[in-house]
Amino acid sequence: MKFFLDTADLVQIEEAASWGAVAGVTTNPSLYARIGGKLADFPAHIARICALIDGPVSAEAMGLTRDALIREGRELAGIAPNVVVKIPTMVEGLAATRALANEGIRVNMTLCFTVPQAILAARSGARYVSPFVGRFDDSSEDGIEHLANIVRSLENYDFADTGVNGERIEVIAASIRSAQHVTQAALIGADIATVPFSVLKKCVEHPLTTNGLAAFQEDWKKVDNA
Q: What sign does the dihedral 6-8-12-13 (CA atoms) show?
């Protein structure tokens, strides 16, 4: 399973990239607003992210009609070769995804919650589909079960002929809230987990590792250096 970083924070992205474990970045309007981003600066900000990450960078189109989504998608894709256009899972989004895929532009269909939505995204030519795990949990449903159903359903079919350059659609486990979510997504077989920086750090940490390192340090002080 690959890790994407779910943020618009350049400092976090640069730090995570230095670990060598991050294969891409996903952003959304909420994440950009959280860092105090300005609308006029958005294309330049995405370009800076693309320069930090040697992998796909998802940037969201905000139109509500297919024409607006297609226009924005082309503009976003023109920022850098590794931009992936995020489009919401809806009728107008499916139409825009098909048009953009026909032009060789990769799409990440976001706000996906059901198996039929995921299959329709794949049929429309999406390169990625992003089921939201944590938002199901917020409404007292099992987000991991929904993710598992989507992964299993897409594995039943070969959608390579519908996508860009014959690439297989990949499932991005999104709205990840914990290292346990990451573990479950990996066991299910999700292709990618996109995680906040705080969760990525928790994936590295474990009390037994911390305690073991402290014990090694203490024992090393006892070694005779004569």
A: positive
Specify the length of the chain in residues.
226
4 neighbors 23 (Cβ within 8 angstroms): yes
- Residue in this structure with the two tokens 């959608």, named with its chain if needed: 159
**Catalytic (active-site) positions:** 86
CATH 3.20.20.70 fits 2-221, yes or no: yes
Tell me which residue has tokens 């590792």: 209
What are the sequence ranges of the domains in the chain? 2-221
Q: Which helix (H) or strand (E) holds 88?
A: strand 83-88
Helix 91-102 to helix 66-77 angle (10° resolution) is 40
Can you tell me which residue has the tokens 């402290």? 214
Amino acid occupying residue 225: N
What is the pairing mode between strands 170-173 and 128-131? parallel
pLDDT average per 10 residues of sequence, the chain (226 residues) = 98 96 96 96 98 96 97 98 98 98 97 96 96 85 92 89 82 96 97 97 94 93 80
pTM over 0.70: yes
